[in-house]
Amino acid sequence: xxxxxxxxxxDEWVLVSPHRTLRPWSGxxxxxxxxxxxxxxxxxxxxxxxxxxxxxxxxxxxSTYVFTNDFPALLEDVPKxxxxxxxxxxxxxxxxxxxxxxxxxxxNVYLPTMTDSEVESVIREWINQMGELGKxxxxxxxxxxxxxxxxxSNPHPHCxxxxxxxxxxxxxxxxxxxxxxxxxxxKPMLMDYVERELxxxxxxxxxxxxxxxxxxxxxVWPFETMILPKRHILRxxxxxxxxxxxxxxxxxxxxxxxxxxxxxxxxxSMGWHGAPTGEFLATDQRHWTxxxxxxxxxxRSATVKKFIVGYELLAQSQRDLSAEKAAAMLRKQPSIHxxxx
Length: 341
Prior knowledge:
Blueprint (H helix, E strand, L loop, with lengths): L2 E5 L4 E5 L48 E4 L27 E7 L13 H19 L4 E8 L11 E7 L4 H17 L3 H12 L3 E4 L3 E4 L10 E5 L11 H22 L5 E6 L17 E5 L2 E4 L2 E2 L5 H4 L2 E3 L3 H9 L10
Parallel strand pairs: 2-14
Antiparallel strand pairs: 1-2, 3-4, 4-6, 5-6, 5-10, 7-8, 8-9, 9-11, 10-11, 12-13
Helix pairs in contact: 1-4
């Protein structure tokens, strides 16, 4: 029956309405794009040797490749905005840099079809980028938009890295709530959460000796997942070799399960959250737990997605499919991608 669930990370509630999964669908149906992607496309600016719109040439790389975004949302050298005493019209300085990171030189591969060592190379480069940019910036956001449904116009396997001088809204509210939990209970919130999920076994999608992927109890998106560590760590830069190796393994399996669910390239936005950097590197951040978030829009099939509109924009989040049902659907999918199995 319908009920509301609490998200302690964001101090929000979500309405769960499982009975609505029976309703007929007559809304928008998406077009499934062809997955016949060439290994190399001479017009794709992320392919080795191709000239980008900026006139710069992408070099002939053979592993990962990182470059400064040609059209960044954040720049490093900009003037400070004027200050205001009006509490209703406030501005503040925003400096930063935006980078693009290619996972692989070939356009027709992705995490579940890459080798373990290739995915480990992606993670090691994330660690390198976090270490470099984190020395200067308060927040380093590594994220990926996968698929045209998520606004990604380029099929080449890649992600983005936006670094900012300010603390963005989403991680800031997580910081506040994790800190309050730590002060009250003396333990990191998400490590307590991992322990409980491992005990209950209701929402686990896949796991190995270092990591676990769950559909969060408070998930908003139908097949939303979190990747959580079994050993407490704060940031990417805390990783050891085992955590790198087993995260690569878990990511390959999780994305394979996503793709296998509807036999399509499963669209999502995903990213990583950990303790803030920059000036926060010298402060106590034990309340933080490093974690990953996958936010996919698909609801019933490869062509039907969830829309966040109406009640969800004006009141609070709502979902039909229960987190437990979503986890069970993903869990039973094969761990090998349907294209190679």
